[in-house]
Design brief:
Layout (H helix, E strand, L loop, with lengths): L1 E4 L19 E4 L2 E3 L2 E3 L2 E4 L8 E3 L2 H4 L18 E7 L6 E3 L2 E4 L1 H7 L9 E5 L17 E2 L1 H8 L5 E4 L14 H6 L3 E3 L12 E8 L7 E10 L1
Parallel strand pairs: 7-10, 9-11, 10-12, 12-13
Antiparallel strand pairs: 1-15, 2-5, 3-4, 6-15, 7-14, 8-9, 14-15
Helix pairs in contact: 2-3
Length: 224
């Protein structure tokens, strides 16, 4: 059994999406108790989309249509059958200065049919740019047809190793259908190119914060 951590590190001066008050900073909150000094930290600017995170349709449609993350059944997050689609970044075509994933790329990476209710994980190797300040700005994206192709497989989770799924310069408005599908979205995974097997097990553990639509996670892949 091989355990692969696919969670990106959170630290000061890292990239972020530009949300107000969303710039991560580690605070030292050391304190004394019963004559001993303890080390303690605070997390300023930790938002739902910091680092590797999951997101539900509540982000787009609100909580009347979709449950918050703490209500996701654990069976959707633990020991999930996952399929790794290896699509090297260098093979991707480019538009508007960014690489993009198209339907043909996905079909070429499919080694067998992916059952409904599985996790689909797109690996391009882009996470090797994790420490760069333009990690978000130069992110690859999904062409509309490619994202729809994944959605039509009725996946439990759709994950990848890049942050921005839509072409910002010429948007195709595919995110509404994504967030209407019921799939859990998990961007910004790392180390996916190190996974050798096509079918693996996935574990995704969000912080148990009540009533939120996006949350940082610790995610691991298990190759058996």
């Amino acid at each position: 059994m091989k355990i692969i951590d696919i969670t990106g590190s959170i630290h000061e001066e890292m990239w972020e999406f530009g949300f107000p008050h969303g710039h991560f900073k580690l605070l030292q909150l050391d304190y004394e108790h019963l004559g001993h000094r303890y080390t303690h930290e605070g997390f300023e600017g930790l938002v739902g989309t910091t680092g590797t995170f999951i997101q539900t349709g509540a982000t787009y449609h609100g909580y009347k249509k979709f449950d918050p993350i703490h209500k996701i059944p654990l069976k959707r997050l633990v020991n999930v059958d996952a399929y790794i689609l290896q699509i090297p970044l260098k093979k991707l075509q480019e538009a508007d200065g960014r690489k993009y994933v198209q339907v043909g790329d996905i079909k070429s990476a499919e080694k067998e049919e992916i059952p409904e209710g599985s996790a689909i994980i797109i690996s391009t190797g882009y996470s090797q740019n994790w420490e760069k300040s333009d990690f978000v700005d130069k992110s690859p994206f999904f062409k509309k047809e490619a994202l729809y192709y994944l959605i039509e497989k009725s996946p439990n989770i759709i994950a990848c190793d890049f942050p921005t799924w839509e072409n910002k310069l010429n948007p195709e408005n595919s995110l509404e259908r994504l967030f209407s599908s019921g799939a859990i979205v998990m961007p910004n995974c790392i180390n996916l190119e190190k996974i050798k097997k096509y079918k693996v097990k996935l574990i995704v553990l969000p912080i148990k914060i009540l009533d939120i639509a996006a949350c940082p996670v610790r995610a691991i892949v298990i190759e058996e």
